[in-house]
Amino acid sequence: MKLKNTSVCLLTGLLFAACAGSGYQKTGNGVVVEVKQQQPTDVRKVRVEVMGEKLIHVSATPEKNFSQEKSLIVVPQQNNTDFKVEEQGDEISVKTSQICAIVSKTTGEVRFTDAAGKQILAEDQRSFEPVEVEGTKGYTVRQVFQSPEDEGLYGLGQHQADEFNYKGKNEELFQYNTKVSVPFIVSSKNYGVLWDSYSLCRFGDSRDYSQLGGVFKLYDKEGKEGALTGTYVPSPRTKVETLVRREDSLYFEHLKRGDLSKVVNLPVGFPLGGSQVTYEGEIEPSESGLFRFILYYAGYIKVYIDNELVVPERWRTSWNPNSYKFAVKLEAGKRVPLKIEWNPDGGVSYCGLRVMDPVPENEQNKLVWWGEMQNEIDYYFVYGDNMDEVIGGYRTLTGKSQIMPKWAMGYWQSRERYKTQDEIVGTLKEFRKRQIPIDNIVQDWNYWPEDSWGSHEFDKARFPDPKGMIDSIHALNARIMISVWPKFYATTEHYKEFDKNGWMYQLAVKDSIRDWIGRGYIGSFYDAYAADARKLFWKQMEDHLYTLGIDAWWMDASEPNIRDCVDIQYRKDLSGPTALGPSAKFFNAYALMNAEAIYDGQRGVNNDQRVFLLTRSGFAGLQRYSTATWSGDIATRWEDMKAQISAGLNFAVSGIPYWTMDIGGFCVENRYVAGQMEFDRTGRENADHKEWRELNTRWYQFGAFCPLYRAHGQFPLREAWNIAPEGHPAYNSILYYTKLRYNMMPYIYSLAGMTYFNDYTIMRPLVMDFAADANVNNIGDQFMFGPAMMAAPVYEYGARSREMYFPAGCGWYDFYSGKYTEGGQKLKVDAPYERMPLYVCTGAIVPYGPDMQYSDEKPADNITLYVYAGKDGAFTLYEDEGVNYNYEKGQYATIPFTYNDAEGTLTIGDRAGEFPGMLKERTFNVVKVSKDKPQPFDLKAKGTVVKYDGKAQSVQI
Q1: Alpha carbon of 884 to those of 8, 603, 606, 879: distances in Å?
Q2: What is the pLDDT of residue 22?
Q3: Is 422 a catalytic residue?
Q4: Pick the catalytic residue: 282, 542, 556, 691?
Q5: Angle CA 38–40–45, to nearest 5
């Protein structure tokens, strides 16, 4: 486990400089300020530690001493930053050359300024509430900061309510399928706060949502006070009568503990499958203001308030419900109609609507952290000249992002699931036959014998020769990633190995929870918080899978998701106690611990092969384990596609640069399944199948400009030829963007190098690059792919245009035509079926490589170098061996490009560095794009040819 370096860790080596009568002590890297307590739960000590020129660690406790527990997210720091401590009146200041942390001796509150004394961030209030779980004591804590009205707040991981700027918004931080919580927020004012807590946390309003009856007076449809009316109309196929009853709350959000066949509060015995359910009546608030609602749903759902549709139709599958947030202004004493139309998904389904009453706007807009169970308040203040530097500070604290293998930047094909070795190898052969580029194919779950989950053994009936299968994949110039869960059936030898050492979570077995496979099997998850358990987990994978030649690891259900659709308390109980303490305290960091197991394990046995992990959950620090995250089992809906844009952007700002999603969505609406089956049977494309093809086309277009390009999902099958036949616009578009992805490989892999050497972020919200333009603060449906390209995915069915904002500060060229557009304006742009709007900024320099079928098929000895005039520009081409860690030893090469717009000259600088297999000579075909001379992307475009041997040269273009 990687640990943080704080003064607590160094107590034995520090000399405290006690300042008599001053109320503070100087330490080796900061100060401890003592505050006079009025109550036992008031702050007693505040510690400020300098972690770098722009990094400050703050801890606050009501106890006599600070906790000595080690951080799970912060790595050891090599910190020799000079700082000064000054006392002036009631305040103690800790100053570096760049920032100052100022502590009030009276309240213990901390504020931060820049070197000139301008305030950046200031604490407002804090609180501690004692808690005890399983004999372990701690505090529920709350920390409030003042927040300027005009700042934007981004990060917090990846969530599915399609919220982008978290200013004035609320987010509950826990891990669940499609929800990845990272306790890091970044401000458009160029600072960040890393909240060092592993428990359930909340950002924004620290209250939980209330039942409707706890906030409103409820009236049923007859006007009777005390409840709404619930009308349950069964499917005509049943002989059950319509049920009408009064509902004092709408809370049908999880399975009933002790009887997991039932959903809490729904009518017992009523057949939900195929039914239509309506909840209606009136709500009456006792105060005026903005009421914030959270809707929980599986199946189709709509919400009307005051006879207006406030939630248009949404859908989720029954086994993986979703949450959606919305807000409505209401007046005190005014009764307004409420109506929910719900078509449940199957016989077990979920629905819920809860609410928060208003808080004053100035309170709602503050920056607030809440943690359910912590030793103390513990956070890191990160400052920078821009958002990139803030994210760089986060990675200084939590670990460098490794350079992914070059092949990981290529296309990934997956489905749920390849059922035999002939199927997976045959699919790869079809890619090669059709000349559709691909680098990676994925073996999803259930390749093992039905009763042997966790054995890591292939079912011999379906996979008779796993080693031969993997060798065949490698012979086809591809890699294989395999799904591995931290789950073990109780009958397996692997379970027993963990269990005898106390490393299995026991409650799922004690409660006889059966999974969904066959007749249902009993098992549980291992405790990834135990260091030796992590070593055993890797050893089992090494012995049974790694030795076969597996290239990459798909760590599914790493929340951990021991049982779907149960309440938070039962989830905590199922995943604990952990080796470090109660699961209430260690609820969110499982994926981080699990990733450490594989990363450290593989590097321990083969330090010459880059590790690649894909995990469904994540946490702060995940990037140091060469781990990417995908957005989980999302739905195949247009609104879900749109939500992935803001989800991916906020995840990127959370400091973890590698993110992907299931292109096309994972959980499929029945209408799309029926449409595919009708097409397979008759060859006719019905309306639903037509929409399915367009949805996938648009999603592939978006996916080609994500850090990782990957398709996955349930039936219908997701390979390009299974979506549409060759020659169909959908097929043509998928092929175009997949080929383009490989043409962009020199550019993309250079971005990958930048994530390590420059702490760069590949998928970038516009606010990162155009902070001076306040118009971009709330744009969460466009993004930059590296420094050059602005992508604008199309997420409405039938749309052939979309509105785009062109940020000020530069001009923009249409990628496909070269046509120029001035920045600082909003326009409607064309978006034909086969193309997604894509623009390149002035000053951009983009290297393109040859057409390829896989990432290392050809050397990039001929690069088409596009230069977009109108502004000075620079870019650095990065290259290394692509598969090992020699870059950590300095074995890599860079070639800098600089463009002087006034002179019209491009300088290709001296190559720096070298590595085995490096090209000594190459050709650049330099293509200039200008307002006067539009030039679409074309590898065959005529440009200025430059023969390059590693020595600097300038050319007029």
Answers
A1: 37, 10, 10, 12
A2: 64
A3: no
A4: 556
A5: 80
Strand 411-413 relative to strand 709-711: parallel, antiparallel, unpaired?
Answer: parallel
Q: Are 177 and 566 in contact (CB under 8 A)?
A: no
pLDDT tens sequence across 367-400: 999 999 999 999 999 999 999 999 999 999 999 9
- What is the pLDDT, as a whole number, of residue 79? 84
Tell me whether residue 633 is one of the annotated catalytic residues: yes
One-letter amino acid for residue 913 of the chain:
G
Under a CB-based contact definition with an 8 Å cutoff, are residues 584 and 373 in contact? yes
Q: Is 164 exposed, middle or buried (0-12, 13-18, 19+ CB in 10 A)?
A: buried
Dmax of the chain from CA atoms?
89
Contact between 119 and 111 (Cβ < 8 Å): yes
| The residue type at 86 | E
Is pLDDT at 795 greater than 70 in this prediction?
yes
Say which of 196, 444, 633, 773 is annotated catalytic: 633
Whether the CB-CB separation of 379 and 202 falls below 8 Å is answered with no
pTM: 0.97
Tokens 């008779």, residue located: 464
pLDDT of the residue at 78: 87
Q: Are 905 and 872 in contact (CB under 8 A)?
A: no
Amino acid symbol at 106:
T
Contact 349, 263 (CB under 8 A): yes
Distances in Å between the alpha carbon of 738 and those of 39, 143, 711, 850, 853? 63, 47, 11, 13, 10
* Position 514 pLDDT exceeds 90: yes
Buried b (16+ CB within 10 A) or exposed e, 829-851: eebebbbbbbbbbbbbbbbbbbe
The answer to whether 511 is a known catalytic residue is no
- Among 345, 416, 559, 781, which one carries the catalytic annotation? 559
Dihedral over Cα of 244, 245, 249, 251: its sign: negative
